[in-house]
Amino acid sequence: MEKAGIPAASIGVEKLVKTTGRGMARAQGIPDYPIAVISHSMGPLADLKDDNDVRVLALAAAPQVEAILIGEAWLSPVPT
Asked: How far is residue 60's CA from residue 51's CA, in Å, rounded to a whole number?
């Protein structure tokens, strides 16, 4: 989407961003691609119990996504 000029933001679970997410970004030639990171210690996302669980994750990601979309300098909490 970004290559077409449409701002986009990726969101990932911390454990996967450290491995698969960073690896895929490097493979695409953009190792510093910003990824909003959520810490999800509740198990699989499919195990979220209710709307409140989803809301907690969304609130954690929202400021990161906003910074990515408006192009603010943003420091990933996960090493690249």
From this structure: 14
Task: Give me the pLDDT at residue 80, please.
Answer: 46
Burial letters 23-56, b for 16+ CB under 10 A, else e: ebbeeeeeeebbbbbbebeeeeeeebeeeeeeee
Residue 36, beta-bridge partner list: 11
State the Cα–Cα distance between residues 79 and 73, nearest whole angstrom: 15
Tens of pLDDT, residue by residue over 41-67, are 656 666 778 898 888 888 989 999 999
Residue 4 has pLDDT above 60, yes or no: yes
CA-wise closest residue to 43 among 59, 22, 57: 57
